[in-house]
Design goal:
With about 600 residues, the protein is of the alpha+beta class. Helix content is about 55%, strand content about 10%. Among the domains are: about 65-220 and about 420-470, no CATH class; about 240-320 and about 325-410, Alpha-Beta Plaits (2-Layer Sandwich). It comes from Chelativorans petroleitrophicus.
């Protein structure tokens, strides 16, 4: 009966991995189907073995209470808090300046720095540090985050392979071999680890970006960040932060990313270039800017900083230049055919009074003249930029006069909370890096702190929760539990050893590495390391090879969790922000596994002297 459970477990895992890799089915569907299959298998055909124990529903569902899963989900909420407050905007600007105009150089600088740091720090908090930096950099420089986040995860894994404290996998192996009377020093794996890391880095930085798809996609990402410009209007009222800004070389650098196209002063119109002009009270500025530039201006100066069309309404409710609350969102909406707003000027359309939102700007496919925002006549197909509370935008979705674009609503950053968010984030990293608290405790506490301090609203935190990761991890741990407790993992190891019997030490070590690297992408890296360390030592003793060669092979192969997102925690961390699918890891990660395997197969025998 045990053989039946083993082979059925193999079959379910194989079908699941193929379904994941095909990208033909939603990840949630495959994860639930896999979980249901295991529950049915062990529910209808109970398994109990004297050496392995019994498998019940409680064992299979235990993955949903796994500390690693709770850590990842909590850190996603923390990352959303950093993004919502622009806390990582300054580090992104610094790295962007160092990288110059090349976003590839900026990415390489960032991920290589992360790899170096991960050699002496656990790579999970290192990835947590750099994810928001890279996301902010992507927003500023106009590239898709998918081009940077998987390289970040992979290079920190490679960096963690260079010292014994670089990852928990290395430390686990060192702990297991200590029971055999073998000590592993801090730098014992450094030289082969550096060789593997360098070989992997060439692929990750030189080839992998061409394999990764533009998740999001980059075209859409560029358009939302920098490609699409809206026309807006600013009226310089008393106390406005733009008062006194002077032109230089015909431009206004003090306005940041807002570009004036027309200044109306006491009935007179001034056009670029603006020579010797100082902005003064009563001026009306017609500007063009990207959506992100509008968001930045709103976060710094409040709703009244942009549009004068409905400024009176905002003046009645308070100072329009006061910072906006975390509930304030901006969104894009289209004027549909038949809308009652079509044919009316923005001033007369009454969008603010009818729908309770703030009119920020307008964009249309064909060129518009330099016209004040309030005098632009709306046409079907125009895209308008609006701002308002989450509730107001939700109510607007019921209107037939404006069509809110799906997924376009985004909260305005809260820079006044950036210091708080960064402090919370730093506390998580410090307490986790120096083992003051378990990372699951510090990350959940940090997520709670983000909400209670107002860096995030509860709905924003809920949106950061990634159901794909939740279901993927839970179902994958169920598969790993079935594979281990039925003896399926042990059977694979024993079969591999028997097949390699009689081969040279170099071939045996290469084959052993390949088996461990394969299983680490199905089981967790730590489970694979613990399972294969004693097997590797036994093989080394049986064939007369140096035990350290097989210990190193176990460490490096168990760290080769590149081909699936479930093998390593950092892969799960970048999966959501990078908009990756399971198939993305298979396509981009499998060549890296092969490169590391081939490199060690060639270098290892020479280095260890056989």
């Amino acid at each position: 009966m045990a053989d039946f459970h083993v082979w059925m477990t193999y079959a379910i895992i194989l079908v699941t991995v193929v379904a994941y890799a095909s990208d033909r089915f939603a990840l949630e569907q495959v994860a639930l189907a896999s979980l249901a299959a295991f529950l049915l298998l062990f529910g209808i055909f109970p398994f109990e073995h004297p050496g392995h124990g019994a498998i019940h529903a409680e064992n299979l569902l235990a993955g949903f209470a796994n500390p690693a899963l709770a850590t990842v989900l909590a850190l996603l909420i923390v990352g959303q808090g950093l993004f919502a407050t622009d806390a990582m905007d300054a580090p992104a600007r610094i790295i962007g300046r160092l990288g110059g105009r090349s976003h590839w150089r900026a990415i390489a600088l960032t991920v290589l720095t992360a790899a170096a740091v991960s050699s002496v720090l656990n790579n999970t908090p290192v990835v947590v540090i750099f994810i928001p930096v890279l996301v902010a950099m992507a927003a500023k420089q106009g590239f898709a985050p998918s081009k940077a986040l998987m390289p970040l995860s992979f290079l920190t894994i490679l960096g963690g392979m260079t010292t014994i404290i670089g990852s928990s996998t290395n430390l686990l192996v060192a702990g297991v071999v200590a029971n055999f009377g073998i000590g592993v020093g801090f730098f014992d794996i450094t030289i082969p680890g550096l060789v593997l890391a360098l070989a992997g880095a060439v692929y990750v930085l030189g080839i992998m970006p061409h394999i990764l798809r533009d998740a999001g996609s980059e075209k859409d990402f560029r358009q939302s960040v920098s490609g699409t410009h809206f026309i807006g209007e600013i009226r310089l009222t008393p106390g406005h932060p733009f008062l006194g800004i002077e032109s230089r070389s015909g431009l206004f650098p003090g306005l940041g990313e807002l570009t004036p196209k027309l200044i109306i002063r006491r009935g007179m119109s001034f056009y670029p270039p603006f020579d010797n002009v100082t902005l003064s009270e009563g001026d009306r500025l017609v500007i063009t800017a990207t959506r992100r530039a509008f968001m930045k201006a709103l976060s710094q100066g409040g709703a009244g900083i942009i549009s004068s069309v409905d400024s009176e309404r905002f003046m009645k409710t308070g100072d329009p230049t006061q910072p906006l609350g975390p509930d304030y969102h901006i969104a894009e909406a289209i004027i549909p055919p038949g809308s009652r707003h079509a044919g009316r000027t923005i001033r007369n359309a009454g969008i603010d009074t009818t729908h309770g939102v703030h009119m920020l700007g307008v964009q249309r496919k064909h060129r518009m003249g330099r016209t004040p925002l309030s005098e632009i006549r709306l046409e079907p197909g125009d895209t308008i930029l609006i701002g308002g509370s989450d509730r107001a935008l939700e109510e607007l979705r019921q209107s037939h006069d404006l069509l809110v674009l799906e997924w376009s609503a985004e909260p305005v950053p809260q820079p006044r909370k950036a210091g708080i968010a960064f402090t919370i984030f730093a506390a998580i990293v410090v307490t986790a890096a120096f083992d003051i608290l378990p990372i699951v405790a510090s990350s959940i506490t940090g997520a709670f702190a983000m909400i209670v301090t107002g860096c995030l609203t509860l709905p924003q935190a809920a949106r950061a929760f990634d159901r794909q990761i939740f279901l993927l991890v839970g179902s994958s741990i169920a598969a790993a539990t079935a594979l281990e407790q039925t003896g399926g993992a042990q059977l694979i190891a024993e079969t591999a050893v028997s097949l390699l019997n009689g081969q040279s030490a170099a071939v045996v070590m290469s084959g052993f590495f390949a088996v461990v690297a394969l299983l680490t992408n199905v089981l967790s890296n730590n489970a694979t390391a613990v399972l294969f360390t004693p097997i590797g030592i036994g093989i080394a003793q049986a064939i007369g090879a140096p035990p350290m060669a097989f210990i190193a092979a176990t460490i490096f192969a168990a760290n080769c969790s590149f081909a699936t997102p479930i093998g390593y925690q950092t892969n799960l961390l970048v999966m959501g922000p990078g908009h990756y699918s399971f198939g993305d890891f298979v396509r981009a990660g499998t060549p890296l596994v092969i490169i590391i395997w081939l490199t060690f197969s060639l270098f290892g025998p020479w280095y260890y002297g056989f």
